[in-house]
């Protein structure tokens, strides 16, 4: 459609309009009256009936409200920081002592996956086989970008099988956690799974078990892929721009110099003081695309531009 940043194509077997310019994207993404979530069938099936990709706008907002505090609330973030720092430091020390080259993206996938499983399930409480999970989540991710043909030999079919296996693994973790709570009555050191099982909306409704399983499946996929790729690109950009790396490093050194003698590790307060490093992260995310598209479906004919 000319130089408008809008063009027509077919995606996943459906006629689609691709929108590129920021102002047009903002118009579509903020217009709930004319647009609704419209992810491809493969994404809806493989992320689950109760995932953020498949539910109504009202239910989407409800789940966002319920999961915001356990996932991004200040109390939750403060609780996660020590474990994240411990994992990163241990991994860097392991890599630096190796006499073999380190495949950075693969290494970061292992680190970020371990971090996110610790956040969701508790430090060292769940022993996942990383190689198995990597294969299953790889099949799931590829299936989400394929034609939904559920027949042996097709990518989508492998994705369906991977989802089935992942649900078995996650269901076993949830069942074990419920049994532990039943035996002990209450748990002092809570993880994100505990909080998701306890959180209530304004009508005192808790998340259903299917909600929890689909949320776990979705966030573990995000933690396995996007965090590792984002870290890789940030490292590449900083390597290509040593002046920016130096400024970011100086900011961190200054924050550490101001640290009280009684404090031994990183805190959420220090992270929030990292203004220059935050801009580095934001610019990295602006320049790269961790998700190739955000999908909306028009409820009616709409004129854009």
TrEMBL record:
It holds the Pfam family p450. Keywords: Heme, Iron, Membrane, Metal-binding, Oxidoreductase, Transmembrane, Transmembrane helix. Signal peptide: none annotated. One of its GO terms (molecular function) is iron ion binding. Its cofactor is heme. Transmembrane segments: none annotated. InterPro entries: Cyt_P450, Cyt_P450_sf. It is found in: Membrane. One of its GO terms (biological process) is pollen tube development. It is a single-pass membrane protein. One of its GO terms (cellular component) is membrane. Belongs to the cytochrome P450 family. This is Uncharacterized protein. It comes from Eucalyptus grandis (Flooded gum).
């Amino acid at each position: 459609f000319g130089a408008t940043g809008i063009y027509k194509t077919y995606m996943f077997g459906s006629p689609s309009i691709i929108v590129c310019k920021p102002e047009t994207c903002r118009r579509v993404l903020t217009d709930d009256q004319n647009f609704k979530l419209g992810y491809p069938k493969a994404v809806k099936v493989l992320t689950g009936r109760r995932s953020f990709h498949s539910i109504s706008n009202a239910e989407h907002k409800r789940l966002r409200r319920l999961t915001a505090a356990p996932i991004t609330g200040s109390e939750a973030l403060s609780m996660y920081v020590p474990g994240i720092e411990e994992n990163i430091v241990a991994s860097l020390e392991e890599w630096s002592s190796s006499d073999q080259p380190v495949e950075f993206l693969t290494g970061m996938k292992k680190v970020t996956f371990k971090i996110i499983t610790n956040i969701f399930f508790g430090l060292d409480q769940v022993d996942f086989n990383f190689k198995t999970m990597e294969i299953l989540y790889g099949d799931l991710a590829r299936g989400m970008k394929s034609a939904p043909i559920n027949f042996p030999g097709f990518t989508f079919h492998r994705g369906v099988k991977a989802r089935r296996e992942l649900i078995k693994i996650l269901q076993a973790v949830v069942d074990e956690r419920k049994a532990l709570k039943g035996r002990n009555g209450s748990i002092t050191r809570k993880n994100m799974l505990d909080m998701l099982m306890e959180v209530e909306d304004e009508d005192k409704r808790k998340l259903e078990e299917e909600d929890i399983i689909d949320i776990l499946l979705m966030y573990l996929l995000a933690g396995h892929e996007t965090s590792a790729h984002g870290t890789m690109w940030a490292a590449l950009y900083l390597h290509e721009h040593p002046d920016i790396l130096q400024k970011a490093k100086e900011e961190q050194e200054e924050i550490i110099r101001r640290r009280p003698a009684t404090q031994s590790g990183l805190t959420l307060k220090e992270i929030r003081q990292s203004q220059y490093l935050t801009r580095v992260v934001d610019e990295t995310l602006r320049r790269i695309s961790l998700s190739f598209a955000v999908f909306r479906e028009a409820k009616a004919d709409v004129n854009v531009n």
